[in-house]
Structures are given as C-alpha cells and as structure tokens.
Amino acid sequence: MIREYQAKDLDAIMNLWLQGNEQAHNFIDPEFFKQNYDIVKMLIPMSTIYVQDINGVVGFIGLTENYISGLFVEKNSQHQGTGSALLEKAKQHHKELLVHVYKQNSDAINFYLSQDFAIVGESINEETNYPEVLMRCNVEHKVKIGKCAL
Fold first, then answer.
1. First to last CA, the chain
2. Exposure winner among 23, 31, 74, 89, fewest CB in 10 A?
3. Where is the N-acetyltransferase domain (predicted)?
C-alpha cells in the first residue's frame, strides 16, 4: 500500500536511504552519505514523501515540489514494481517531474528512461564532483468522462 509519510516511518526511511545510496553509488566514498545522514534526516519531514508499506516500509519517494529528491527501494523488493508504483503516485500530483542521476548509476538511468523520462542536461555534482544527468518526464493527465479517458 502506498501512503503518505508518517513520523514513525523516519528511521525505516533513513535506513533505506543510507543502504540505497551505498548500494547504488559504490563509486562514492560511503563516508559522504554517513556525513550527510543527520542533515537528510532533518530535511525528510519537510519534503512530500510517499512510502510503500508492505508489513513495513520497503520503499519511498521524496519530492520537493516536482523534483524527485530520492527514490529508494529495499534490495529484496527491487524489480517487483515498487519503484514504478511510487513514481506513478508522484505523477498523479505533477505535470512534470525532474531528477538528477549520477551518470555511473546506469540502473537508475535505465529505470527512469523506462518510465518515460528523458535526459535533458548534464552537469557535475557540486558536492561529489561526479557527473550527473538531469532527467525530465512530462506527465499527461487524462480527463475521465464516464468510463472513457480523453
């Protein structure tokens, strides 16, 4: 079940955040994420967060307006539609979504490409000095009239 963030989710979300970053970004020194842990923990409640709760939090997406500040799924729940479902939830609330992805994180780039995102820019991340791409998805919201979608 996808639901909105609750304060009781914070520790589970932070565990997913730390493990997910260390797994997906093995080219970055793990100390970088540990040093940013407390800052992220403070910022999480200020974002719009949706969690996938299946007997506990197995994934979450964090949004700052239409920017995806994080999408993490626990390792054992990956490739089962959790990330797609969380992204779909975000698409329900926005006409456009943006996300930065490290160029070395080809799994994430391929995931977003499969979800109708396109690469629209490249830059160097100021904190890590690693190259990243900016990806954008323009979301089409269909108007439903009766049983038909227009």
1. 28
2. 31
3. 1-140
| Separation between Cα atoms, residue 46 and residue 108, nearest integer Å | 24
> Could you tell me the CA-to-CA distances from 83 to 80, 127, 131 in Å, in that order?
8, 26, 23
Q: Give the neighbor-by-neighbor strand order of the sheet with 48-53.
A: 2-4, 48-53, 57-64, 67-73, 96-102, 131-138, 118-124
Residuewise pLDDT in 10s, the chain (150 residues)? 999 999 999 999 999 999 999 999 999 999 999 999 999 999 998 999 999 998 899 999 999 999 999 999 999 888 999 999 999 999 999 999 999 999 999 999 999 999 999 999 999 999 999 999 999 999 986 655 555 444
| CATH fold for domain 2-149 | Aminopeptidase (3.40.630)
